[in-house]
Predict the structure.
Amino acid sequence: MKRRIITTADGSKTIQIEDWDEQYHSKHGAIQEAYHVFIKHGLRLFQNEKIDLLEIGFGTGLNALITFLEGQKLGLQIDYVGVEAYPVSMDEVMQLDYCKQLEVENQYQTFLEMHKSPWEQKVEIGADFILEKQQKDFKEITDENLFNLVYFDAFGARVQPELWTEDVFSIMYRAMKSSGVLVTYAAKGSVRRAMQAVGFMVERLPGPPGKREMLRAVKS
């Protein structure tokens, strides 16, 4: 499918899949969305502890980068697993320029290391951050009672409805620890009902720019 780099409303870049008219991040602001959904309503629930974190859709690596940066401020030791079936190319990574937009040019090599690190291996990325990228379909996840936090950042239900089903959320539920938290930019009623059907307690929260609401789910 044809892909191109576009600039979103906050000046940060993302990848657009033209055939789907779908972006890896919100066209209303890639960085703003990532901070609002995954950091403000997810990562910041944890402080001064060790956490296991699963990202569904490693994609551009933006969520991993900002988690690395924010985790240092929060005193977290993070074991980060990013699952991605179709990795982005290094040419695309070089064009995204997130470190400049975030004003952390000193972390450029860290961002490149995240993308260049081998798949299926745990790699230490700076202090207190271990990254393991897994190249596979989300439905192949078999972990049980492991993750404190899940970033559910799959492509939207409009283009990939099969990723927003009870079957997939039951995999997430099984993979999470008791009281584990899942956050996503999505807010559709069908998504909320699928989460509730497998046992999650779900709340609607104010959404990022361009979206009225988002969802946060807790494993009971």
In short: The longest strand covers residues 176-184. The chain has a mean pLDDT of 96.
